């Protein structure tokens, strides 16, 4: 069976980290399986969907490195949903309902008072009620008639799942204004696009039972399902309370690496250690539904920040660094001190200058300048030179190294000077030790 999965975001806002994780897990599964990843824009909510947000979805997925094999917009497929609607109607599996939202709220309140589950009572199926409400000129919304029996499937994350649809309200498929809600277009598209696996958050587990019945009513094959736990905050709080609006755009603008974000979202909530991977291919090779735990995945921004730094510390020199004027040797020297790529330019200025030195010990600096050996320099220059300065001045430990670092870089911390000194070069080193900006 060819694996075909889909990601179906709504263009009603920016892509947040929870959505991004859904997209990523679908993509990783498809690539590991040699399958296809489809992008389907769920824009049936015409009042809230915008082209701006749709374009942002494309941009954010591309930034994360996720490509798609095909794409479509549900607004282009309304005729197909109408055909599906009429098929359900002909099969007697969809029916008109006339209650107002106020009346439905009243019904739910009565059920709650009686300690009954809030399940729609199917009053609209009563011919007398239907005739009365039609005579009042009410416009119907349309519900799918559930079988009120048990629906079961083997979930690729949760294992065996069984839900009694008698505990559920018949889902509304079409609004009073004739607009389609999520459920029917989703099932119709999954059939039409031959989706083999539906990979999504566990908040969809219950409505999966209704969707399986709709698949059967439309005569389509039922895909396999994988429902993974949702993201929560560091303390287990719902992500929406603090970070639910944290978008990929915000992460990008904060200077985080897309591969760090992908590594983090792919590994949290799994049995794998949360470690950086340099390519999506590595993440795909390691992907396995069996590794996804049943507990919620904790999204901790500080962990993502640390992972971003670890990724950069292991990253090879690339075209972006070259465009910043940072050579391979300079990157090798400064990358352990970079937490964001944007930091690289600042750290690189310790070499390229200008640096205003801080002369803490003028006599030590003067002696050190006089003892600088001729070039060429390499990694052995710093230890040999500082040994000579120590022998001449008697300085050692912090009393030796700290004044030299302040003079050479103007800072009390930074990259390893063994690697930095040969890149600074003798002329700049002498000038800085003499207290000159260079």
Strand content: 5-15%
Please report the number of helical segments: 20
Architecture of the largest domain in CATH?
A: 3-Layer(aba) Sandwich
* Major sheet summary line: 3 strands, parallel
CATH class of the largest domain: Alpha Beta
Question: Which class best fits the helix and strand makeup?
Answer: alpha/beta
Supply the number of structural domains.
3
What is the strand arrangement across the widest sheet? 1-2-3
Number of strands: 12
Distance between the termini: 66 Å
Range of helix content: 40-55%
Radius of gyration: 31 Å
Low-confidence stretches: none
CATH homologous superfamily of the largest domain?
HUPs
Q: What is the CATH topology classification name of the largest domain?
A: Rossmann fold
What is the average per-residue confidence, as pLDDT, rounded to a whole number? 94
Shape: elongated
């Amino acid at each position: 069976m060819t694996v075909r999965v889909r990601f179906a975001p709504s263009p009603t806002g920016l892509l947040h980290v929870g959505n991004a994780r859904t997209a990523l897990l679908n993509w990783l599964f498809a690539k590991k399986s040699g399958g296809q990843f489809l992008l389907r824009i769920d824009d049936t909510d015409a009042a809230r969907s915008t082209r701006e947000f749709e374009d942002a979805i494309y941009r954010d997925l591309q930034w994360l490195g996720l490509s798609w094999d095909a794409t479509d917009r549900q607004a282009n497929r309304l005729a197909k949903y109408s055909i599906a609607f009429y098929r359900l109607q002909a099969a007697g599996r969809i029916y008109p309902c006339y209650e107002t939202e106020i009346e439905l709220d009243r019904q739910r309140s009565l059920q709650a008072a009686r300690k009954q589950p809030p399940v729609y009572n199917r009053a609209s199926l009563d011919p007398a009620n239907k005739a009365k409400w039609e005579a009042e000129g009410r416009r119907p919304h349309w519900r799918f008639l559930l079988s009120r029996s048990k629906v079961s499937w083997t979930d690729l994350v949760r294992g065996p799942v069984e839900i009694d649809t008698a505990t559920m309200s018949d889902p509304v498929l079409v609004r009073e204004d004739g607009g389609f809600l999520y459920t029917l277009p989703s099932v119709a598209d999954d059939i039409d696009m031959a989706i083999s696996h539906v990979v999504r958050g566990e908040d969809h587990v219950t409505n999966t039972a209704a969707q399986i019945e709709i698949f059967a009513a439309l005569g389509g094959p039922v895909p396999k399902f994988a429902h993974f736990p949702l993201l929560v905050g560091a303390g287990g709080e719902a992500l929406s309370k603090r970070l639910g609006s944290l978008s990929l755009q915000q992460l990008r603008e904060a200077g985080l690496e897309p591969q760090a974000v992908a590594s983090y979202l792919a590994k949290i909530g799994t049995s794998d250690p949360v470690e950086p991977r340099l390519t999506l291919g590595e993440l795909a090779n390691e992907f396995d539904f069996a590794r996804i735990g049943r507990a919620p995945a904790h999204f901790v921004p500080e962990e993502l920040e640390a992972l971003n730094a670890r990724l950069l510390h292991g990253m090879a020199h690339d075209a972006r660094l070259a465009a910043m004027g940072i050579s391979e040797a300079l990157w090798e020297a400064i990358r352990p001190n970079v937490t964001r790529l944007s930091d690289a330019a600042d750290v690189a200025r310790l070499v390229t200058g200008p640096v205003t030195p801080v002369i803490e010990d003028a006599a030590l600096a003067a002696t050190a300048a006089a003892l600088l050996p001729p070039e060429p320099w390499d990694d052995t220059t710093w230890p040999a030179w500082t040994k000579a300065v120590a022998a001449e001045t008697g300085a050692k430990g912090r009393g030796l190294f700290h004044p030299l670092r302040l003079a050479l870089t103007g800072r009390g911390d930074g990259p390893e000077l063994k690697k930095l000194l040969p890149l600074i070069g003798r002329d700049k080193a002498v000038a800085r030790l003499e207290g000159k900006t260079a």
